[in-house]
Amino acid sequence: MNYEGKVYRPWIEANSILIQTTLGCSMNHCTFCSMFDDKRFKVRDIEDVFKDIEEARRLYPYVQSIFLIDGNVMAARTDFLLKVLNKITDTFSECKKISLYSALNDFRRKSVDDLKALKAAGLSMAYAGLESGDRQVLKEVDKRMTPEQALEGMAKAKEAGIEVLLSFIFGLGGRLRSKEHIEATTELLNQLKPEQIAPMALAVQPGTILESQVESGEFILPTKLQILEEEKYLLENVNFPTVYWGDHGNNSVPMKGLLPDSQAFFLRQINQAIMQNPFAHQDVIQTFSW
Predict the structure, then answer these.
(1) What are phi and psi of 190, to 5 degrees?
(2) Is 124 contained in some domain?
(3) What is the pTM of this model?
(4) Most CB contacts within 10 A, which of 41, 248, 276, 283?
């Protein structure tokens, strides 16, 4: 199997077989991200994708889950994606889950009929980055998506029956816009109602525009207390059932479970960290590369 450049997958997909379907990210301009700065977006030749699927079959006698990479595979043409999905389901009859990276704008740009066809062909779920629900923060990080576009994309995914895991970033508003960022993000999440959510604490990646903004003072990093208070606000105000993947490696208090079932327990954990952990009152956050 051939992989070109840096390869990423959600930590939740640790046991999945990775099939490189596209190269890079069709956006690749967000200020906080350096994941695909080593390549330009390209849809791979279908025969090369098929060869990797066949090679995976030779290597793995039993496969339950497959994850399609790179950055936002959903940006590829629907007919191409259907060929890939059909090849996977024909090759791995035992496979129970096929997932990929998407953007909410990728959902928005496809018709509901196209999305329903992808679902029928075996697509189980998509991972999408919301990052923030705050219009100003989205603009500042060059996400090139509005809250209204996020709602439109999610509505199409829901109508097609494709499960969505939305990730977002505590601290992305910086020290000066922490309150607006988390309030708007929580409000938007309550409208979007994704089946799963994955919050992660801000980590400034080397070589990004955000790193240069931190160095110049244009972006002031939030404090650790602000990060915890953002998660506290979210857990106090999120009002829909979802799976909470709060166990990303950058998060100060790793937590994973169902909401609302675990909501009260998670809040106690966060409040305990705010009150008792010395790191919570340090003036700087420690950041890590992905």
Answers:
(1) -65, -25
(2) yes
(3) 0.93
(4) 248
| CATH classification at residue 153 | 3.20.20.70
Best CA proximity match to 38, nearest among 206, 265, 202, 173: 206
Beta carbons of 219 and 213 less than 8 angstroms apart: yes
Quote the domain boundaries for residue 97.
11-281
| 135 domain residue, yes or no | yes
Q: Is residue 274 part of a domain?
A: yes
- What is the pLDDT at residue 287? 64
Which residues of the chain fall below pLDDT 70? 284, 286-290
Number of domains the chain is built from = 1
245: left (phi over 0), alpha (psi -120 to 50) or beta: beta
Question: DSSP label at 73?
Answer: G
Structural domain includes residue 168: yes
The Cα–Cα gap between 72 and 81 comes to: 12
DSSP state letters, 39-105: S--EEPPHHHHHHHHHHHHHH-S--SEEEEESTTGGGS-HHHHHHHHHHHHHH-TT--EEEEEE-HH
198 bridge partner residues? 167
